[in-house]
Amino acid sequence: MLKTVKRTSLLAIFGLGLSACAGNVYNDAKMAAPSGDAYSQALFKEMMAIADFERVEEDWTDANYFGGQALTVANGGMIEPTDPNMREMNKYGDSGYTRDDVTAGYTELNGVLAGGGASRDPMAMAQAFAGYECFYEQVEEGHQAADIAACKEQYDNAIAILTAVPDAPGVCYYPINGDQVDFNCQTEISTIADAAAGGGQVVVQGHADTLGSADYNLDLSKRRAQGVVEVLNQLGIPTDRMTVGAVGEAEQRVATPDNTAEQENRAVVMRVIQ
Q1: Residue 173 forms beta bridges with which residues?
Q2: Residues with Cβ within 8 Å of residue 14, at least 6 apart in sequence
Q3: Which of 101, 177, 204, 251 is least crowded, fewest Cβ atoms below 10 Å from its Cβ?
Q4: According to the model, what pLDDT value does residue 251 have?
């Protein structure tokens, strides 16, 4: 999800007295149950997150637009990134971004899609897609700097994962509830540090399995990622050359039910982007 929005407006909840048909597409999407592959399910979730945000902001046009994209995915269809020439730019303010910036993202995103990003990392591909769509829509309006930054950050982080050098990955595994770097993990980190010695950005992402609460697992994944960052620092990789994230149990490397121990999900994944 791009950001958490507290629904404080009753007018937003009840549709501001708009006609019932105004939210039909959005409402249909809310009732949909996607059953496609991992990318389709992740993309549906990400597009609905944008639609939900627009609904809270009482923007039914965009709530229906993004809800319609989600509904297409839920029904087994394919959607493409929105053409960068479709929307106006900076209608209500100056975002600091131009159509050239949107076009650059559109070109990059399509290149990653064509290169198999959806099968290589379904979650990251869905997040990149949604990040682009959100960024473009926010730049169209041009006046919500924090929202623009959040959308761009999601896009940039996801693209960083998708474009990481494929022959320089590393994975640290942990025991249940563990967050310490062991000998095997140290070896993996050293390999990554060597690969990044000549330059490039290191992507570090912490994970956890579904044992315990979601909040606990998010904190655990943060501690795991931070431990790896500290060792990378010791090996000469400064923090400003890292993109660090932690997802807890939200982005499972191997899908499992709740309250399931799975070593593949008790991990920190490292990649180098040249």
Answers
A1: 267
A2: none
A3: 177
A4: 85
The CA distance from 141 to 126, in Å, is 23
Cβ proximity of 217 and 248 under 8 Å: yes
Q: Rounded mean pLDDT of 45-68?
A: 93
d(CA 141, CA 90): 5
- Express each pLDDT in 81-131 by its tens digit: 999 999 999 999 999 999 999 999 999 999 999 988 888 788 999 999 999
How far apart, in whole angstroms, are the C-alpha atoms of residue 236 and residue 87?
45
Give me the half-sphere count of Cα atoms (radius 13 Å) on the Cβ side of residue 218.
5
Question: Per-residue pLDDT tens for 128-146?
Answer: 999 999 999 999 999 999 9
User: Which helix H or strand E contains 244, and what residues bound it?
Assistant: strand 242-246
Q: What is the pLDDT of residue 2?
A: 31
Both tokens of 2, joined, read 């791009």
Q: What are the chain's domains? A: 10-162 (no CATH), 170-273 (3.30.1330.60)
Question: Is residue 204 within a helix (H) or strand (E), and if so which, with residue range?
Answer: strand 201-206
Q: Residue 127 is inside which H or E element, if any?
A: helix 122-141
CB-CB neighbours of 187 under 10 Å: 11
Distance between CA atoms of 258 and 213, rounded to whole angstroms?
A: 9
pLDDT band per the 50, 70, 90 thresholds, residue 213: very high
Structural contact between residues 248 and 220, judged by C-beta atoms closer than 8 angstroms: yes
Q: Which of 87, 98, 96 is nearest to 149 (CA)?
A: 96
The Cα-based distances of 74 to 37, 77, 156, 256 in angstroms read 10, 7, 26, 22
Tell me the per-residue pLDDT of 4-36, one tens digit each, with 9 for 90 and over. 222 122 222 223 333 334 458 999 999 998 888
